[in-house]
Amino acid sequence: MLGSSIAAATISLTVIDPPSEELITQRTITLSPISRTVRIGRHASLASRHNALFRCAAMSKDHAEFSVNGTTNSIVIRDLNSTNGTTVNGTSLGSKVWTPLSVNDEVVFGKLVQSVSPCAVQINSIELSFSGDAIEYPIYIESDDSDSYDATSGDDSIAEENLPNYRATVSKRRNICENGPNVDLGTISGDVHSTKRNTSRPDSVEEEMAPRKRSISTQSDGDPIPPTKRRRLQRR
């Protein structure tokens, strides 16, 4: 699409030559305006079906990376000066040289070292979204009982079953940010009401004012006209 730039891309790949410890063979990786590059590397616990981290011991931690070439509107890959290198369709990549990827390309990270096998993947599909298109970015939610991440249906909403925990976490973090880590909102509310009650006049002031109120009340009820004023009226 000439005249338009890539706003997002999704790469689907399959691990075709996994080492014995590689458990997640299907990967779907999204590049968005926020994350224009995706790191490819070795990580024992964070490998999931939505990233490019593998358990392969032949790979470096920062082995390679995917990115978007806005000039050619294509997905590209480069090796990050890894120990055992990267090949695309049998051709070794130069260090930090971007190479375009196409569907059905075979990418091998690392090489056979003693009894350790490299990680070979095949590019199944590349989907490009251009600026002006309606784009739906997937959201990945970390599981409570594993190192993997789960994806929603593809829209930008949280899965319904995850909403209660999500809202509770957001509320808790907001309270901590606003009131400090050890402040209970119930305590704050009680302190506010207590402060309002304490703004009334002290008992000693009330007692001091009481005789004056009684004097004024007696004068008003028993004799509405002061005696001095009554004598003046009689003289007239």
- Identify low-pLDDT runs: 133-160, 185-202, 215-220
β-sheet strand percentage: 25-35%
Shape: globular
Structural class: alpha+beta
Order of helices and strands: EEEEEEEEEEEEEHHHH
Mean pLDDT: 70
CATH class of the largest domain: Mainly Beta
What's the main sheet like?
6 strands, antiparallel
Q: What CATH architecture of the largest domain would you give? A: Sandwich
Counting DSSP E segments of at least 2 residues, the number of strands comes to 13
Kindly report the spatial arrangement of strands forming the biggest sheet. 2-1-11-10-7-8
Q: Roughly how much helix do the residues carry, as a percent range?
A: 25-40%
The first-to-last residue Cα distance is 111 Å
Number of domains: 3
Gyration radius over CA: 37 Å
How many separate helices?
4
CATH fold description of the largest domain: Tumour Suppressor Smad4
Q: Summarize this, please?
A:
The chain has 236 residues and is of the alpha+beta class.
